[in-house]
Amino acid sequence: MSIWVNLDLMLVKQQMQLTELSQRVGITLANLSILKTNKARAIRFSTLDALCRELKCQPGDLLEYRDHEVGQDVEP
Amino acid sequence: MSPPKLVTARIVKFWFDIVFFVGLTFGGLLALWLLLSPLTVSSSETPSDAAIPVAIGAGSIRPVLPLDAEASTAISNLRILEGKGELRFQTTSWTIHFATNLVWLLVIAVVTYVVYLLRSILRTVIADQPFAAANISRLRIIGLILIGTGILFPIVQYLAARMVLNRIDVQGVALSPPLEFGGQAILGGLLILVLATIFRYGTQLEKDQSLTV
Question: What is the ipTM of this complex?
């Protein structure tokens, strides 16, 4: 997948733990881990809405398109 | 309380468990007997019963027996088509015994394995993971086994019957080894292969769903 979720970066910027974000947005820690490790296949608008609200950012700050590099895992 | 579909799956699995373990015990004993009985026959020199499927008339796929009968001028060309039955006899030959027992050995092995696969599928249903990737290959194996039995069993029966009929000369009536492929088993196998393909799609959807946040 070429779409990367910069959840780590946004958490650092907001100085927030994943557990705290999980409680604030009402998404399980397991699902947030799927997002964080770029294993997610799709993301709901409602999830994106909640994440942008709590992390005080834009969808573009969270999602990033990266071209495949040689030797990079295509399907995480 | 479990949902009704899980209760049904549990009941079906319970019956499959009984069929599997009883079948495994008796099937194992029967298989042992089928394997050993030809040897005991040859060592004791006492003839014992054996049977083969036969067709009355000439031709294996569509046997025809012309009848030499007197009829009115309006009726002629009398013949019996696809007359099939079982030829029972006694023999001391262990090869004949083994050949006639071979089909039953294959039936026991196939039924036991298919029930084992069905139990495994039901176990995933009870665990609420029916779209497990392993179930696709299980279904595909069941489908291929059904198609295989629909083709292989009649061939084994045909060869066994042919082997026996080559050794005997029945007077007055022509007997042929019948060759009738299991159309229902082949059709059932094809349906299960289609089901396996649909299951693959379901598994993909399930994975997409579980990885949607």
Answer: 0.72
